[in-house]
UniProtKB/TrEMBL annotation:
Keyword match GTP-binding: no
GO terms, molecular function: DNA binding
Keyword Transcription: yes
Source species: Pseudomonas frederiksbergensis
Protein name (record): Transcriptional regulator
Domain (HTH hxlR-type) ranges: 12-109
UniProt superkingdom: Bacteria
Key words of the record: DNA-binding, Transcription, Transcription regulation
Length: 165
């Protein structure tokens, strides 16, 4: 994860993309933003990033045009983070990682962590990007997300552990 301040040393789009989003922490920050988490503390809780690590990732994402800061409190000054058009355009990558992870990175006894239902027709889209009910190609804005009980409990436990520190 680097800030592009000089000409890249390659024309490879994969390498250039990895310069912006190529580490675990950055991808987890982006995941949180897509899940609707926008404040520093909650992003920190759910990613388990140190404050320094999270600050560095958010600054880099902001400098690379993936996120914008917006003040939500004047005293003390606090910001929330929102994906830009460029950041929102990254959703297919996060969605593909989700699908791959659901298929290859977990025990078969575990339920799907987040289910997506196509708002237009009400069908569960599973792990694909085409609705099996109506055949529409779906984007994030077309989907209603519901966390599994296990994933919701995991997130609540992280929040409670952070608050008890």
């Amino acid at each position: 994860m680097t800030l592009q301040t000089e000409a890249p040393d390659t024309v490879c789009p994969v390498a250039r993309s990895l310069d912006i989003v190529g580490d675990r922490w950055t991808l987890l920050v982006i995941r949180e933003l897509f899940m609707g988490t926008s404040r520093f503390e909650e992003i920190q809780i759910q990613t388990k990033a140190t404050p320094q690590m999270l600050t560095a990732r958010l600054k880099s994402l902001e400098a690379n045009g993936m996120v914008e800061r917006h003040p939500y409190s004047e005293k003390p000054l606090r910001h929330e983070y929102r994906l830009t058009e460029k950041g929102r355009a990254f959703y297919p990558v996060i969605y593909a990682l989700r699908g791959w992870g659901e298929t290859w990175s977990k025990d078969k006894s575990e339920e799907i962590a987040v289910r997506f239902v196509h708002r237009a027709c009400g069908h569960d889209v599973g792990l694909g990007s085409v609705c099996p009910g109506c055949g529409d190609l779906v984007e994030r804005k077309d989907l209603e997300a519901t966390m599994s009980d296990q994933f919701a409990a995991e997130r609540a436990e992280r929040r409670a552990a952070f608050k008890s520190k």
